């Protein structure tokens, strides 16, 4: 979609906010994001009295919402998942998969929940790719305003089978971190992740932008760590992360690095201008 109108300006009265996505989905596509959410946000979900997690724009099939419920309940047994889709036919197709703790409804960026409930988590994966970069800030602000006080928005992009993924984590106050995640055995060099940068960053991978400098340094550290490949891709990744930490403010450590992840503050990669 090439329109530069905002999601709000495209909304007819009483209709959901947003546009229909391609709907591409596969089982286990979002497993890396789900594992990270469970590990980093599980405690907040457990503290919540009646935590609701939203799978926003789950696509043509409900697999990602079904899997999100299973993975989050390992960390927070009382969590409920609501899959929200702007395409009514997709909601109808998902209804047979409803069960205790899992429901589906028609909606968009307004995130309609019973009683105006505020979600403890909104996951929006591969949703904003079709939007213009200029629209991202408005969508982020709208979704963050719907969060519970201790809530989290995770917005990002991955490939079709979930080998490579980059996402931004946001709280009610705005963007917090950027995470790069990959199946290490499939990685030739870290800058291969550039094609999965979220919409807020993908057009900023050019000289003079922080994300471009980071991916350049990431590749250099990966190349310097080549001798560690003899011990496996995981050891090479960990060594690469240790080297990067000398110049970039990484916010995670070896426990997450071992999962093929690496996280930085949003401020370190925020676009210039």
From TrEMBL:
Residues 1-16 have a biased composition (Low complexity). It comes from the Bacteria. InterPro entries: SAM-dependent_MTases_sf. Residues 1-28 are annotated as: Disordered. This is Methyltransferase family protein. It comes from Streptomyces avidinii.
């Amino acid at each position: 979609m090439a329109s530069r109108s905002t999601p709000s300006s495209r909304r007819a009265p009483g209709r959901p906010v947003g546009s229909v996505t391609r709907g591409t989905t596969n089982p286990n596509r979002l497993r890396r994001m789900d594992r990270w959410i469970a590990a980093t946000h599980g405690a907040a979900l457990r503290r919540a009295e009646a935590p609701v997690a939203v799978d926003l724009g789950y696509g043509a099939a409900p697999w990602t919402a079904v899997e999100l419920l299973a993975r989050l309940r390992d960390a927070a047994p009382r969590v409920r998942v609501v899959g929200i889709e702007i395409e009514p036919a997709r909601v109808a197709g998902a209804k047979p998969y409803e069960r205790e703790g899992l429901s589906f409804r028609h909606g968009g960026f307004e995130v309609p929940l019973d009683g105006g409930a505020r979600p403890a988590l909104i996951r929006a994966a591969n949703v904003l790719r079709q939007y213009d970069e200029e629209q991202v800030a408005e969508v982020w602000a709208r979704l963050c305003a719907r969060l519970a006080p201790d809530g989290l928005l995770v917005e990002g992009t991955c490939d079709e089978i979930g080998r490579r993924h980059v996402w931004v984590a946001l709280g009610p106050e705005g963007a917090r971190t950027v995470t790069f995640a990959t199946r290490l055995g499939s990685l030739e060099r870290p800058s291969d992740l550039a094609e999965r940068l979220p919409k807020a960053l993908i057009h900023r991978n050019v000289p003079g932008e922080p994300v471009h400098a980071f991916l350049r340094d990431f590749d250099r550290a990966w190349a310097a760590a080549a001798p560690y490949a003899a011990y496996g891709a995981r050891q090479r990744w960990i060594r690469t992360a240790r080297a990067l930490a000398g110049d970039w403010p990484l916010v995670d450590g070896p426990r997450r690095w071992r999962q093929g992840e690496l996280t930085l503050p949003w401020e370190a990669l925020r676009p210039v201008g």
